[in-house]
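Researcher: I'd like a structural prediction for the single chain below. Treat it as a standalone chain; there are no partners to consider.
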Amino acid sequence: MDPRHIRNFSIVAHIDHGKSTLADRILEQTGSLDRKMRHVDQVMDSMELERERGITIKAKAVRMKYEFEGEEYVLNLIDTPGHVDFSYEVSRALAACEGALLLVDATQGVEAQTIAHASLAASLGLKIIPVINKIDLPSADLDATLEQIWETLKIEEEEMSVSAKEGRGVPELLKEIIRRIPPPDGKPESPLCALIFDSTFNSYRGVVLLVRLRDGIAKAGMKIRFFSTEHEAVIEEVGFLMPRPQKAETLSAGEVGYIICGIKDIHQVRVGDTIMEAAKPLNKPLSGYQEAKPVVFAGIFPVNAADYQALSGALQKLNLEDSSFQYQGEQSQALGFGFRLGFLGLLHMEILKERLEREFRLSLIITAPNVRYRVQIKDGAWKVVENPSQWPDKSIIQSVEEPYVMATMIVPVEHQEGVLNLLKEKRGEYKNIEYLSNKRLLIEYHLPLSEMVISFYDRLKSISKGYASLDYQPEGYRTSDLVFLEILIHGQAVDALSQIVHRDKAYGVAKALCEKLKELIPRQNFEVAIQAQIDGRIIARETQSASRKDVLAKCYGGDITRKRKLLEKQKEGKRKAKLLGKVEVPQEAFLAALRIDEPAERG
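Model: Treating it as a single chain, here is the predicted structure.
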């Protein structure tokens, strides 16, 4: 295929601005859907979770043929997620493109993720075409949206107006894609150089690599090498996604398609790696690709200990499709053997847990999420803490640092006070407030990442009645007064319930957690103490009273000494049970830490 007749582009936007709907209309306009697919809603969002939640989780690639001015062109579309947790997927997609459609909802205007995606596309040198969507709605405000694109995003490119739902404006948009987005500049005669932007695992064929060829040609029988792992393999099949897989003779420079090498060991492949011909190795890999940096960590354990190996295999397969999460083995005194996972955010964690349970039929327990802290020991050494159980003894700690982010929010003016109060409660530090119009303003605050991983996003949406949008970028570590909060149940520390919290909030969190655990832990034959301690000092306690059996129920009369003997026997039994008894903590108790409301949130 002549590279001059290829256009590689992506659709980026804030969540729920209509990316997948527009992608489906483009598929229809180019005649890329077969008879079965024409009757399917949400072709691009094929995952059950995506349809349920109305969000895109995985980037999707599809090849389309389009005739323009008497010549045939190939359009390679890579659809991307919009939620802040899946920005990693966006970076992979944009690294494989020359252009991007920046979609903006005419009823909501420019949102936080719109700004983030536009900045990322501009930094990669992509041609950006602003597209205003949902022009069919009565509340659409084209003039205000266009003004925001010019002033907030600093994009002066002529905009396109479409209704992705009705298909209005899509034919004109396709023509502009051909006119404005530049063709790839790769050379078929150069040595093979391809970017792996995604991958899946097929039980019969092994790893299926989704690639964008920068230079050269890939074909069956060619021996290739992966730059980072240096693993070599022979190509068994190449082809295109149209959107169903279609086998081809070759993949050429500028094209997007799939490569199958029969690789069954998923550790031999990394998403983002560069493929080269074994006989013609490259000096350096392709640039423009961002590695994922997990910011939220949590433990995942099988409810049934016998499912540990099944969980291990499931994580390996999912990690091939979603290399943005990290995992390693972990052992808990309360929960047994499991894994410690690193995620890009809370939604990422929630989605991954649901996929493990649905796709692999596992029943799982997930511990309270936390972030990565840095602790300086008195001898000058630094220790990275990803798990509260790794927290060093207070006597050897010199200082503690926690990660901060720059949070960008776009909020309706009428909800400004509520959002600013939330930021104050979450230990936020002011940076900037800018009015985008008489109805909306942009708020920038420095925030501890630990304050965002539990309930910040949900409360922001609740306070703003769903209209606020959020984006955040890491900005390093700062010294903070953090403490290790340990939960004791019947005198035994439960490591899975331990947390690292700010000293000013420790009592509120401890009290709320003890009260919640008292509700969830079933009553025993003996009294159970539920305590929270910091540095060996108890700061909160709840007592679960013993369940009492009426041992006098059958004593209808007789000497009082008989009743006293039965009561004393019961009392002695409870004393022994209290010394020797163990409390089994139910699964709901470990989930309680995820839903603890701080005192300011309870009303």
